[in-house]
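User: Sequence in, structure out. Go.
Assistant: Echoing your sequence, followed by the structure tokens.
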Amino acid sequence: MVTSLISTYSIESYINEKKLLFIGTLCNMKSSDITNRIFVKRMFHFYTAVTENNYGFCIDVNAILQTYELSNFLDIY
């Protein structure tokens, strides 16, 4: 609470902010962009795969969206 009162944030919140901005950038790209197509394909595979080896960017995206209760936005996307 003290850090927010003096307008400083933890390194974790700074990293989370940058990750959320990156996710927003990926979602706002044109659907014809190869980067967007790779992102959508990886996220679709993450949600539909029945493996226990999920690691990397997709699980990180899912975890951060759940942390801030934003996962429904990705579901809608």
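User: And one key feature?
Assistant: The chain has a mean pLDDT of 84.
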